[in-house]
Design goal:
The protein has about 400 residues and is an alpha/beta fold. The protein has helices at about 1-15, 35-50, 65-75, 95, 105-110, 115, 120-125, 150-155, 165-175, 185-200, 205-210, 215-220, 220-235, 245-255, 265-275, 310-320, 325-335, 350-360, 370, 375-390, 395-405; strands at about 25-30, 55-60, 85, 125-130, 130, 135, 145-150, 180, 260, 280-285, 295, 300, 365. It is built from 21 helices and 13 strands.
Length: about 400
Amino acid sequence: MKLRLLAAALAATVVLPFGIANAADLEVTHWWTSGGEAAAVAELAKAFDATGNHWVDGAIAGAGSTARPIMVSRITGGDPMGATQFNHGRQAEELVQAGLMRDLTDIATKEKWKDIVRPSSLLDSCTIDGKIYCAPVNIHSWQWLWLSNAAFKQAGIEVPKNWDEFVAAAPALEKAGIIPLAVGGQPWQATGAFDVLMVAIAGKDVFQKVFGDKDAEVAAGPEIAKVFKAAEDARRMSKGSNVQDWNQATNLVITGKAGGQIMGDWAQGEFQVAGQKAGTDYTCLPGLGVNEIISTGGDAFYFPVLKDEEKSKAQEVLASTLLNPVTQVAFNLKKGSLPVRGDVDLAAANDCMKKGLDILAKGNVIQGTDQLMSADSQKQKEDLFSEFFASSMTPEDAQKRFAEIIASAD
């Protein structure tokens, strides 16, 4: 009851300065289409609709790799939406440089985003030439291994506590007719799994040298060779997944058909929709139980420049609403992500979210690869790991190609 009253009070503080007179329909494009994601989006839409404006949902199925080209094409083609999701980082860089994205600096300054957004790297990712061009809404970390407690019980073995124990448990899972590791067929899933393995096995410093400093010598060296060996283990363990979308892979874990999945914390939304409880029905291992570090990637909304004055004013309302403390709590509890505000109460957080909050509080964080590399370099990585997981390419050949990508990365 207290939370509902607080929501109403805070919503009022967002609405009044802008006024209902400027209400408008605003199309918002995003790629959140799974069950858990849809529940989270509904919280954003509800909060925006409460301002007197109307959220026109523009969901695009197929994850970011499918949705982003469509979004970019619309903006560059003269058919911009009111707001659009991108990941934290450099995905909208060229659109900003072309003058197609709205400058939010005045709103950010008025509402003191620099004081409330944590870590500061999130707002840094929205900043180009000293101006702020996006509103960050969450912190999504990739560095998680999700495990089905039921699957390990069926196999007659203990739930693993780290990656090595998980690999060692694979034969017992297979004997019980369970796929050890669920990996969907979308290229970004294989790429993300490799990045997670790098942090867990090679460590934070090596990760930064490779993706931050673009050090091709390190990328071709012995530490990354160990990561490719682990990727080969992951490839072997994932045979039989036979699903495409990430949430289908998550469902294999939810139903006990797979032992685990390397996936970002957005997977929690699917467990929640399925009625499963963290720590009871499933186990989460941040940093694969090896290196408890999380990335500060996630999602932000950009606002294309519009000619319509009423819609432009509605953009300001939406930007403010996205950072509203109650909106932040409601959205992120459903999404499985962490809020970007450091001043909100997350007493309702589950066991896994609390682990993430603890790691964040300790400062054990890295930037996501979307923040460190251009979209073109990311695409080259995706092409490589999509081929690696779908073929018999040797780890040595894959590492050679990887080092070449890093050498030319920007």
